[in-house]
Amino acid sequence: MKNVNFPRNMLCVFVALALVVIFHTNASAIEYKIANKITLGWDATAPVNAGESIEYAIYQAPESDKLSAVKLWQGPELEYTVTLAEEGIFLFGLETYRLVDIGGTIEKVSNSAIGWSDDPAVAPVPFGVRYYLPPPMGTGFGPK
Predict the structure, then answer these.
(1) Would 7 be classed as within a structural domain?
(2) Is 23 part of any domain?
(3) Would you tell me how many other CB atoms lie within 10 Å of the CB of residue 24?
(4) N or C end of the chain: smaller count of CB under 10 Å?
């Protein structure tokens, strides 16, 4: 009798594992937009103490090489538009800086890790951009 229940138990384990794989795959899928320009936006980060301020930095990296990220911009705004100049698949990073007035000079005293656009903890809908250069303009155009 115990051997009859064994396949049913194995089926339950298999179904549970399959559901975990399906939900994990869907949750981490990256949405790629095809564009040469994208406006990025994010939620404001509250300063740690009154009188302090926050700035942000935006990074761009090839999808396969975040270590070669390039810092594109830094400032207090909550939006930045990236215009791509080269063809490729790109991810974007957001870093937060804590700024403190020390003796009348505003200084960066610490910063967060870079949060990447393919990380669901940072981007609720993970994303990247695919940019394709336009083809050359046609020639020999005229009536036949």
Answers:
(1) no
(2) no
(3) 10
(4) C
